[in-house]
Write a structure and sequence with these properties.
610 residues, mainly alpha, 18 helices, 0% strand, elongated
Length: 610
Amino acid sequence: MTQDTRSASEVGQRNLFYHGQAKDFVDLHEQVETSVNLLDSLESFLSTFQKDLSSVSGQISELQERSKDIDNRLKSRRRIEKPLSSLLSDLAIPPSLAVTILDTDVGEPWIATITDLERRLDILKVRSRVKAARDLGDVAEGLRIVAATKLRTFFLALLQPIRTSVTTNMQVMQTSIFVKYRALYGFLQRQAPNVASEVQKAYTSTARTYYETGFRRYVRSLGWIKARTPEKPESIISGNGDNSGPSLDQDRLAYAKMDGPSVILAYMADDKTHEEPIEAILRSLFLVLMDNATAEYAFIAAFFRSESFAPPPAMETNSAIFSPTATLLSPDVGFDDRRSTAGSEIGTHVSRPFSGNGHGPRDVTARPGFMDKTERAPLDAIWKQILDPVLEYCKVRHFMSPSYFRGAKNTQTFVTTVLEPMPPAVPLLTMIRLTEAVITEVQKRDCPPLENFLFTMRLQLWPAFQKIMSEHCDSLKKLAEGRITSYFSRATSTTDASVANICNRYVVMFNSFVILTDQEEETMIFSNLLRLRQELTKLIACHTENINDDVAKATKQSAMYEVLLQGLNKGTHLSAHPKSQKEIAYWAEKEEEARRRIVSIAQSRRIGKR
């Protein structure tokens, strides 16, 4: 019982306990249900979140791929940004460029503008596959045509002052204007060759007239001076034996050198008392020709030379070559030292300051020394077209004929006037040496057409020299042979004075030739002197042949040889020449032989008297 009671009591207590805790259990149950619901909701949310997370992950991957693609595209665009920007800049024609070409006259701003235009024209041609380039092609072509038209008018206008007045200093225009605008003419050469050809022909015609007129006046002035000092040829046997023969004239020999006396100025012809030897006249003409012809060739090479387009940062002019003071007909000075003022048609006043040694070689950049024959040929052709009339005036032809001064049509020219009448041998050799010196200087200045012309002149002078030397030898030979009598001829008389005069002429000729000859062995010169010496030796022997007294004959011969030795020994600078030493030794041996004969004959006579 007790046990059952206890059990019942415990059950009752438990029930009471559970009954008392029922609310808590209900609350707990509710909480559990709530938690389960929450867990179910959370499970559903997590399931949805997982699905959303997978979706987001795919979107992130897609965004990453798009980001990489955008980054690659950005890098590609950055790589073509500069070339594209440059292309657009090159293809686009700035408004300032178009305004300059369309609305302004040609001037210094055009130099940079035309260079820029040509660069853009070349780019448009290269980029012809680009639509923008094709669209701009018509605009650029229009600008090219306008620029070529204006440049044609500009260059032709520059030549107008020279066409209307020969007093215009063309060299100043060449150096200060033409060379300055060389880039503009280069544009015409490459982009408008027909216009460039027209400008070239216009310049050639104008320069041709300019030089022809100037040289015609200058040559005429020299002709007037030459007419006042006619120099007839004299044979070595000429003279009346009064010892009035020629003497060694160092002043005239100086005309054989480039750095010799001053040249003849055109206005000097107005002074009717002014006289000059033929060597001085020829020297003036050659130096004037050399300076102007080489200067013109240098300008032609600098201005008309064809060059590929390479836009320089700036067009610089070689002031050492193309100075604004260059001018026509200014002898013995460089292309950068000359001034000129031409005068009237009747008396040309070509006033030109003379600088004594102005023949130094010019800057190689002004000369076409590095061009091949193909490049040089068109330049030579332009030069010849311009200076052909001048060369005709300067050719070796008969010029000073009376008809020239009577106003007859003159088709003759100047240099051979020196050969009519034939000048003496010494002046002729002086002119030959002058020609050779001028050729050497022209070679330094690199002007092949003028060099060829001067070679031709020299070739025409040498035969004349050979002819006159042969005449001297023949005259001595005939005089010596004339001393020999025959049944059909009478002996030609010679006197001591006439033979002494011939000896003096021979000495003057020999010493002059030595001064004019730098080479120790020159066949043309010394072979003729050797022939002359042989004939002179024969003449002295024939002259004393008729003297019966052997002592008197030897004495006479010794006296003749002494005259020759005294003349040859004048001046230490002459006697130091190897040929002079040989010549002195030859006549000294002759004189010594004569003296030995005198002593030998005298001794024989004294022995005979004993």
